[in-house]
Design a protein that fits this description.
Blueprint (H helix, E strand, L loop, with lengths): L10 E2 L2 E2 L15 E8 L8 E4 L2 E4 L1 H16 L3 E8 L3 E8 L21 E6 L2 E7 L4 H18 L12 E5 L2 H13 L9
């Protein structure tokens, strides 16, 4: 269903889009800690179910867990903290620290997060191509989502899909970090109470 034209609403690829929630002056490729939430398309519970406050992870949820741990192992500038795989979403704490910005990161295309860290490269008469800013939060999350999607679809689930974006909160101090860690720890026991 197409919405009537509205000159105040930004368009991307001839579609209306929600403006980014990212801080416009924040360097998402620089040092920082983030609380991220990534949701599934339609909030379908692909990752498992919760009974009596305990998460029973599915085979698909196990892929998410494995790929998240791999995200930390394969990137020297990334440290992972607490995380939880929920039935229809994922929460995690990720820190980007002292990235070597000269090191090239290979984009894994296929799943867009809608993050603002995309840069436009043009030259040599080409029309240009989009590439993630190396080692940015958007690049890391995009690659995580893409790797998960490829494995899950190869395992026989061709309709698996994430929501196109993800949510992040910048963790600014130790108190905020401790509160978010506790939120992640308590998440399964509060399932159905506050989602």
């Amino acid at each position: 269903m197409r919405h009537p034209s509205n000159s105040d609403t930004p368009l991307f690829r001839d579609r209306y889009r929600v403006p980014s929630s990212r801080l416009s002056r924040w360097d998402y490729a620089g040092n920082g800690s983030y609380f991220i939430t990534i949701c599934l398309d339609g909030r379908y519970p692909w990752f498992g179910h919760i009974r009596n406050g305990v998460m029973s992870i599915s085979d698909i949820g196990a892929i998410i867990d494995d790929e998240w741990q791999r995200t930390g192992r394969m990137r020297p500038c990334v440290t992972l903290d607490r995380y939880v795989v929920m039935p229809d979403h994922f929460h995690g704490i990720i820190t980007i620290d002292h990235c070597d910005m000269d090191k090239e990161e290979t984009p894994r295309w296929g799943v867009s997060t809608g993050h603002d860290q995309m840069i436009r490269q043009t030259g040599h008469g080409q029309t240009g191509r989009n590439q993630w800013k190396p080692q940015s939060l958007g690049s890391i999350i995009n690659q995580f989502k893409t790797a998960c999607t490829k494995r899950i679809r190869a395992a026989g689930h061709p309709h698996f899909a994430w929501q196109p974006r993800f949510h992040d909160s910048i963790i600014r101090d130790d108190r905020a970090l401790q509160n978010i860690r506790q939120y992640i720890i308590d998440n399964t026991s509060k399932w159905g109470i506050d989602g």
